[in-house]
Model the fold of this input.
Amino acid sequence: MKKAQNVVEKILSAHLVEGDPAKDAELGIRIDQTLTQDATGTMAYLQFEAMGIDRVKTELSVAYIDHNTLQNGFENADDHRFIQSVALKRGIRFSRPGNGICHQVHLERFGVPGKTLLGSDSHTPTGGGIGMFAMGAGGLDVAVAMGGGTYYIPMPTIVKVNLTGKLSTWVAAKDIILEVLRIMTVKGGVGKVIEYTGEGVKTLSVPERATITNMGAELGATTSIFPSDEITRAFLKAQGREEAYVELSADDDAVYDEEIDIDLSALKPNAAMPHMPDKVKTVEEIGPIRIDQVCIGSCTNSSLYDMLKVAAILKGKTVAPNVSLSIAPGSKQVLNMLAENGALADMIAAGARILESACGPCIGMGQSPNSAGISLRTFNRNFEGRSGTADAGIYLVSPETAAASAIAGVLTDPTTLGETPEITMPEAFTINDNMVLLPDPPEEAKNRAVLYGPNIKAVPTGKPLEETIRSEVLLKVGDNITTDHIMPAGAKILPYRSNVPYLSQFCFGVCDKTFPERAKKAGGGVIVAGANYGQGSSREHAALVPLYLGVRAVAAKSFARMHKANLINSGILPLTFADPADYDEIAQGDEIELKDVKKSVITGEKAKLIDKTTGKEYLLTTDFSEREIAILLAGGKLNYTAQSK
Ligand code: MIC
Ligand code: SF4
Done:
């Protein structure tokens, strides 16, 4: 008899290229669709061009422009032009700036249940809301997948989140994922895939499910997924894409590795407090703190449903005098429909500052709060400094809580507002894909030139692994260091994503502004870190920039999945303390030696770190797959790919 399978196992077994889920630690899977955004896209396409492949080999690849849209200089526009030229030449659809945030648009127009999706953005799991196995990865991994290459993931632990009951009025999907974050924490999902099941699933629309899978990224999870059911069919039908529907559900006696139960009817409006998405309390517990700013939008909460709720709350009211409210609808489709039905007018009349359909304030591109300001955001990350104001305090909340608070001027539990406004969702969305350009037919593609700009610099490449690494501990950092700490974004830096030498001046700026200078002076070195190092974004710049500054290895208590892969791809050694207590013994500035480290990587034996300053010795785990070993020995994935040609 066939073994009962859950949704994750069904999709994985249909896409398995290498590895046996029953015994192997790493699985190789076929990727059906890819997406890129512009802040990681230039690197991904530079790498794709370096691989010398004529046309993408996926079923569908889309290049979005949504992050770097400020254009206060030529750099962004040059990147857009470069990406457009590569995309159209190489068989990739191009979603023009203004068409919306990659994850929102992909869900609306391209997502297909049961398919695999790899995106150069950590919130690619948004596609799990429509039943896709959707993962974030570094640009190079996405480039390889576009070329038809296999994508590798550690064999995941599959967690069942059983939803029962129904959300009370004013309680939102955002409150569900904040509850999951409270329970599991930002490192609780590492190595796991979260599958949502139970009666409660039927009460959630596709955009609500997508809010939950989107922010599963903050758990450190490989991805999150919902089944594909009649609600999915209705969403696809409303998008004019019913033919893309396939039913997908777990078999009755499917088994899971772990289980969490959440009773939706017991949930209250939640908020994640500064500066971590898992510092969750109920809005009621936090109380009516004074606020300075409210930002509504981002790939977590910018669907038509979210926006209609916000408009209904704002209707006939005025934003409090102490508050600046900005709203960025997630896609051109959403913005268009708000305009058509008058909801946009309600927002404008209330005093909302309407922003273009893009990431905007979520990635620090404008709307930084005032000094020590308190900002409520419907986004997914509230890491220190990410808003562009170092001492601001960011709270992550639902659209309902955000809109209610914007009017009251203090953090407000929307359940205190009484009746919820009636929202009617249209039966069909307004469909107009005129901002998605189709690629050139292969014959014409030959004549299209790839257009570079002066800010687009070469991708740094690693060097083959040496026998022994002798160097200095350049920096010691604590637990949960994010890629926003390692390679900050924001309006001043993000436009330079194609220029690693320039970016390097800002590396680790949030932790220690002297790092780049010291790293250069020392001729490189190693980093010592706590648990969950590199959590957050997929940006490979958090590996490429340290590589450029000469970082050879990171010794940490543990790593986040995507960042570990990006380090290996760059030829930087990620080593794990065999005894986490050893972390306390090593100090910044210590002279160290990783003796015979190459041999340890090859044999899988523990590597020896000799602290020359204290004379003590520590053991570090080197548990790499054969494929990873080959990449590390070659000095990164670009070298490895070139060698294996
Ligand atoms: C983010 O939310 O941090 C980003 C910007 O979307 C990143 C990608 C990037 O750094 O370009 C992500 O989440 O992967
Ligand atoms: Fe854009 Fe923010 Fe979503 Fe990242 S988290 S893709 S910056 S909206």
Remarks:
- The first strand starts at residue 16 and ends at 18.
